[in-house]
Design a protein that fits this description.
The protein contains 13 helices and 19 strands. By secondary structure, the protein is an alpha/beta fold. The protein has 2 domains: about 5-180, Flavin prenyltransferase-like (Rossmann fold, 3-Layer(aba) Sandwich); about 190-400, Rossmann fold. A hairpin with a 4-residue loop joins strand 18 and strand 19 (about 380-385). Helix 3 packs across helix 5 (about 105-110), helix 8 (about 165-180) packs across helix 9 and helix 9 crosses helix 13. One of its GO terms (biological process) is coenzyme A biosynthetic process. Keywords: Decarboxylase, Flavoprotein, FMN, Ligase, Lyase, Magnesium, Metal-binding, Multifunctional enzyme. In the N-terminal section; belongs to the HFCD (homo-oligomeric flavin containing Cys decarboxylase) superfamily. In the C-terminal section; belongs to the PPC synthetase family. One of its GO terms (molecular function) is phosphopantothenate--cysteine ligase activity.
């Protein structure tokens, strides 16, 4: 392994999800990172030291009093490019929020001057407790990235919010943080709402009017925002993609459902990014049974009614002072002219305009766009990974948030 390999500290606290940290460790080491595992004493009840050493290729750091001449309680944090704690229990985050340092991991967190990512895992009641929520808010305010836990099966028969995010998605957050050079958590303490995917307007129980949006750009926006420290709510319309780590996902299908979810989510949002492809129209009537084909008879025309303009509504009625609203415009011709007209019509602060059709944008892993600002700015983003376009959009947002 190269001496210049990124140095990652993987902190593991004492939760049942500690076994999942083995998969995160494997991904980190196989991608060329130099990983030092710092498990708490409680974590060692779930996964033994031999496992950590075998997977990392390095001894696990477990005791403050070992190799005292190397001052491990200071040096490990000082030398790290990234510290990620997975799982992060309620107890561990409480200690971190209050500056307690009674073991090697909490000492490491106090001495680290690099980005710190917490991936919480605990029972729903513990996550929702006001003490935990205040500790999370404190850590985020200080610039730490605290991911939202996933919803799913917990210990025993319990199910709810508190499950450790998928290790592969935690790894993606770590990769993005390191790729941006570390200390850029310019969205820390912010709540952002992102819509993604394409709405579907049902004709009957088996047919719908829809579009080709895969949701990849919206998901990239959500994932990159989380890696930059934001609390993220993702309104997902029919996207068949894995949930980004640390993101609250709200699933919707139709434009009316998206509007309802958006108006609820934006109440305390600092930024709203409407990247979903929302149907302009829906069938005026819904057939409760499958519409049958009759031989020799042409089908009756489908009457359409207009869907609400969610972006224009949110822009016109900001839920809080200073709320920033970003829209997306997919155009097939006269891209910039149509984009400027749409920006004025929608009333948003930024409009990301991209050309679609002919294999561009929809369903692809790359995208190009122009970001038009209500202040007259115009920023061209060249074709590249959708993750890169997402970061460029957040750069524009962060500059306006101040």
């Amino acid at each position: 392994m190269s001496a210049s390999a990124p140095r990652v500290v993987l902190g593991v606290s004492g939760g049942i999800a500690a076994y999942k940290a083995c998969e995160l460790l494997r991904r980190l080491t196989e991608s060329g990172h130099r990983v030092t595992v710092v498990p708490t004493a409680a974590a060692m009840h779930f996964v033994g030291e031999a496992t950590w050493a075998a997977l990392s290729g390095r001894p696990a750091a477990t005791e403050t009093w070992e190799t005292v001449h190397e001052v491990p309680h200071v040096r490990i944090g000082q030398n790290a490019d990234l510290v990620v704690v997975a799982p992060a229990t309620a107890d561990l985050m409480a200690k971190a929020a209050h500056g307690l340092a009674d073991d090697l991991l909490t000492n490491t967190l106090l001495t680290a001057r690099c980005p710190v990512v917490f991936a919480p895992a605990m029972h729903t009641e513990m996550w929702e407790h006001p003490a935990t929520q205040e500790n999370v808010a404190t850590l985020r305010r200080r610039g730490a990235i605290v991911l939202e836990p996933a919803v799913g099966r917990l210990t025993g028969v319990d199910t709810g919010k508190g499950r450790l995010p998928d290790p592969s998605e935690i790894f993606e957050v770590c990769r993005r943080v390191l790729a941006r050079g570390g200390l850029d958590t310019d969205l820390a303490g912010r709540h952002v709402v992102v819509s993604a995917g394409g709405t579907r307007e049902p004709l009957d129980p088996v047919r719908f009017l829809g579009n080709l949006s895969s949701g990849k750009q919206g998901y990239a926006l959500a994932a990159t925002a989380a890696a930059r420290g934001a609390r993220v709510t993702l309104l997902s319309a029919n996207a068949e993609l894995p949930d980004p780590a640390g993101v609250d996902v709200v699933r919707v299908s139709t434009a009316l459902q998206l509007r309802e979810a958006a108006l609820k989510a934006v109440v305390d949002a600092d930024v709203v990014v409407m990247a979903a492809a929302v149907a302009d129209f829906r069938p005026a009537e819904y057939a409760t049974g499958k519409i049958k084909k009759v031989e020799g008879v042409d089908p009756a025309p489908v009457a359409l009614v207009r869907n609400p303009d969610i972006l224009a509504e949110i822009s016109a009625h900001r839920a809080r002072p200073g709320q920033l609203v970003v829209g997306f415009a997919a155009e097939t011709d006269d891209v910039l002219a149509n984009g400027r007209a749409k920006l004025a019509r929608k009333g948003c602060d930024l409009l990301v305009v991209n050309e679609v059709g002919g294999g561009k944008a929809f369903g692809q892993d790359t995208n190009a766009a122009v970001v038009l600002g209500a202040d007259g700015t115009e920023v061209t983003i060249p074709d590249g990974p959708k993750e890169s376009l997402a970061d460029a959009v957040w750069d524009e947002v962060a500059a306006r948030l101040g």
